Amino acid sequence: MPEILVVSPIHQDGLARLRAEPGFTLIPPSEVSPASLPGLLARAEGIIVRGTRVDDALLDQAPRLRFVCRHGVGYDSVDVPALSARGITLAITPEANAASVAEHALMLMLALSRQVVHCNAGVRRGDWVVPSSSPTQDLAGATVLLLGFGRIGTRVARLCAAFGMRVLVHDPFIPANTIRGLGYEPAPDLPAALAQAAIVSLHCPSNAATRGMVNAAFLAAMRPGALLVNTARGTLVDEAALEAALRSGHLAGAGLDVVAVEPMTAAIPLLSLDTVVVTPHVAASTAQGLRRMALASAENTVQFFAGTLAPDCIVNPEAAGTA
């Protein structure tokens, strides 16, 4: 009878799914505290985590552990090689939050293009002014460049197209004819695409090839007055270079749901710029998104122990051969 530890609070429907599964013992987050965690880890064969760091220090306390599920898609906080070396499978919930994050990306595009935060602050100061000229911009007719065309990027493309935008896609792992067949324009020449786009939106993972990719050279290649949107990972962006590009006026604004160091415990320089809109990594965390991620985490766990877990949920298939 596998014991499943849910380390942090998740939607009640996910907990209910685990409770309802015959042969499972659920250790709910209500039982987890700093004092109790080592003992609970010693019992657990499976764990569901949100932001918990899963590394050798944690794994040393979990000798029975066979399965880790990330409540979400990113796994920056998980030491994947350490799991694989111990034969522990890591899974994610790849479809559960895609629609929520895509909507958030579009929301940031709209907020920046229409200067919603600035207008709202003005009204609250008593400035009710309809200008004769405006710095705000329509999305319709604008060119957007999407970096990454996976589960989220494809959804963002559909939303942008519905707003009448021209959609360029740069993703070296997706065939150009696939992008073209879906009605978008492949953009294999990244500098040329950056020079055209009014908005650049990031939808790629953070890894050795992408960390810091949005650097001074990348930003200099962007069209003057363009906007940058990041709902992927903060480590994709050199924040000092982004701040410089915004302060110089080369970029008109940035919408960020993620920053390089999370959680943010002290204000970063970007927060001093009124051309920046920041949300605290909540793109996936709508009421519906949280429920879907909890249910998917529970279902992944049940399927793993039944031997039926879908391969596209598994991050480290090599772990199966190392146990």
What does this structure look like?
This protein has helices at residues 12-20, 37-43, 56-59, 80-85, 98-113, 116-124, 151-162, 176-181, 190-196, 216-221, 239-247, 287-306; strands at residues 3-6, 25-27, 46-49, 67-70, 89-91, 143-147, 166-170, 185-186, 199-202, 226-230, 251-256, 276-278. By secondary structure, it is an alpha/beta fold. The chain has two domains: 3-96 and 287-321, Rossmann fold, CATH 3.40.50; 98-278, NAD(P)-binding Rossmann-like Domain (Rossmann fold). The strands form two sheets. It has a seven-stranded parallel sheet, sandwiched between helices. Helix 10 (216-221) links the parallel strand 9 and strand 10 (226-230). Helix 1 runs parallel beside helix 12 and helix 5 (98-113) crosses helix 7 (151-162). The two termini are 19 Å apart. The mean pLDDT is 95.
CATH class of the largest domain: Alpha Beta
Number of helices: 12
CATH topology of the largest domain: Rossmann fold
End-to-end gap:
19 Å
Going by CATH, the architecture of the largest domain would be 3-Layer(aba) Sandwich
Keywords:
323 residues; Rossmann fold; seven-stranded parallel β-sheet; five-stranded parallel β-sheet; elongated
